[in-house]
Amino acid sequence: MLMDIISNAVLPGALALIMLGMGLSLTPADFLRFRGRLAPVLGGLGSLLLLLPLAALVIALLFKLPPPLAIGLVLVGACPGGTFSNLLTHYSRGDLALSVTLTAIASVCVIFTMPLVVEFALEFFLGEQRDISLPALDTMGRIFLLTICPVAVGMLAKHYWPDFAAKWADSVKNIAGILIVAVFLSIIYAERESFAAAFSSVAPPVIVLNFTSVALGALVGMLTTPSSAERRAIILEHTIKQEGLGIFIAISLLSIPEMVLPLMLNSLVGITVGTAIVMVTRLRSKDSQTENE
After folding, report:
1. Which CATH topology does 2-283 take?
2. Domain coordinates in residue numbering, the chain
3. pTM here?
4. Looking at the UniProt record for this protein, which Gene Ontology cellular component terms does it annotate, in alphabetical order (predicted)?
């Protein structure tokens, strides 16, 4: 009963609120800035949408994870960058415009990439044993309704009622964050025995994937832009994920709670690593200013 309420109401509502909050902070220009910086935007998107899911697949194989956990890890890799990356980019004095652009465009592209990646993972890890599927068109439609539609509503509100959008954007995000945390805690409680048994085996690959994400972001940044601010934006976009979307697919569409553990662990690891990157960056910046003085 509890899981039915979570999967059918609370989780979709929280995801829609997150995207509404994103929309309240976006303008059409955020989707068009890539015209002046094609290399970092296309490089970042290619890495986020293609290389990271592939890296997750390889890591799942190397650690010999059971199918549900392996598919969950691939889900982590397939999730787009999260809006929290924009805040961390701001704190790290990174290129905020690039961060917002990558988040916005990746959130649109994932409608098409996520169902294909997950369907491939299901076939790869379950093969003949699989008794579930993720119909591409139906999944794209559901993701569209829960992501693009709220973003569009938020952007329209920002355009026609800018004062309202400015006043409520943070509140909507905070409410969504509270709901997501409530979902996390509810799932942990409902699946506490299976999560406890799987924690030790899934924590190492999640950590490896997170550091691989940082390394990929650094490599893409190095290859596509000479700007250190743009590189920081790309790295943090690789570090912070929209795990809520992956959890929605695992719980609401596939009904496999075991897949959620890698996503929830990655959320904690990603925030920790992202915060550490910001602290190191600010310390280096402070040291540089002291030396110049």
Report:
1. Na+/H+ antiporter like fold (1.20.1530)
2. 2-283
3. 0.85
4. membrane
